[in-house]
Amino acid sequence: MKIETITKSKFDKIPGIRQIICHEYAQTFACLDLGEILGCYGLSWRSQLVELSIEHSTDQTMLWIGIDRQLVAICLQSGRICLAMPLTANLIQLAIIQKVTAVLTENEILLFNTNGSLRVNYGLPDCPEQFSITGNNLVIELIEGDSFSLNVETGQFRKLVGEVLSS
Question: What is the pTM of this model?
Answer without folding.
Answer: 0.91
